[in-house]
Amino acid sequence: PDLMPNPLDVQKVDQVQYEGKHWVTTTPGVPPLVSTNAPLLDMGNCTPRFIRSAFYTIPATKELANQMSMPISFAVQPCARLGPGEAALATIDMSVLGGPLRCRRCKAYINPNVKFVDGGRKFICNLCNVDTEVPPEYFCNLDHTGRRADTAERPELSRGSYEFLTTTDYCKGSSFPQSAAYIFVIDVTYASFQSGMVQTLTSNIAAVLNNLPKEEGQDKSPIRVGFITYNAQLHFYNLNPNLAQPAMLVQPDMSEVFVPMTEGSW
């Protein structure tokens, strides 16, 4: 046991190592620890803030992999918060192409590891090695090294993390979904009031409402919120902003429950 490293000491050493430095995703070896406060610079590979491997030493042969008997696993956080000093993810709009450019066989998205051939008219997928025609709207000439001349200008060809604006082809029913909705169902029986549960819950709900996720640059969250309380009856609340105050609608018949209003629930 004395030979096992102290995790706190390891974290301190790692923080000192990256103090005041950027970690570039093309750097070979192990990235900074999760606990280390260091800006991550995306240079074509995804940063460990979004995808982190369980280990970074991969067996070179099948025999070694069989002896190790450990699966390769990844912690994936597509909505992870960026650290201080890190650039926001680029948003790419390919609606003119009908959506993001993808491999015609395996449907892999365009990325920095595909290889453009035939003067830039086709690209070879880095996952299945099948070539796909490049639409005329996306065509660009190749330089003397075989890279597209606009590589540095296109995040999907030069960054490991980026976001695509999707089209309705990716949505159920070919229409964009509505914003999410939270419905808080609260037990307001006498026992719940006596135990303090209702008071605790309402104060925590207030904190949640003040921290609902919202798009960058927006003051208001698009998420809708509704409330239902119950004891021996169900209580619905009309939250229409045109009302002077929310109105409570009581439903005493518990055998055939229905929502007593079509508008104002959020």
Task: Give the helix/strand layout.
Blueprint: H1 7-17, E1 23-24, E2 40-41, E3 51-53, H2 62-68, E4 74-76, E5 91-93, E6 115-117, E7 122-124, E8 131-133, H3 155-158, E9 163-165, E10 181-187, H4 190-195, H5 197-209, E11 224-230, E12 234-238, E13 247-251
Parallel strand pairs: 1-2, 5-9, 10-11
Antiparallel strand pairs: 3-4, 6-7, 7-8, 11-12, 12-13
Describe this structure in words.
There is one protein chain. The protein is extended. The protein is built from five helices and 13 strands. It has a four-stranded mixed β-sheet with strand order 10-11-12-13, covered by helices on one side. It has a three-stranded antiparallel β-sheet with strand order 6-7-8, with no helix packed on it. The protein has a two-stranded parallel ribbon with strand order 1-2. The mean pLDDT is 91. The protein has 266 residues and is α/β, with parallel strands linked by helices.
- How can the largest sheet be summarized? 4 strands, mixed
Distance between the termini: 57 Å
Average pLDDT figure: 91
The helix/strand class is alpha/beta
Q: What's the alpha carbon Rg, rounded to whole Å?
A: 26 Å
Estimated helix fraction = 10-25%
The number of helices is 5
Query: How many β-strand stretches?
Result: 13
List the helices and strands in order.
Answer: HEEEHEEEEEHEEHHEEE
- List unreliable stretches of 5+ residues: none
* β-strand amount: 15-25%
- The neighbouring-strand order within the major sheet is 10-11-12-13
Shape: extended
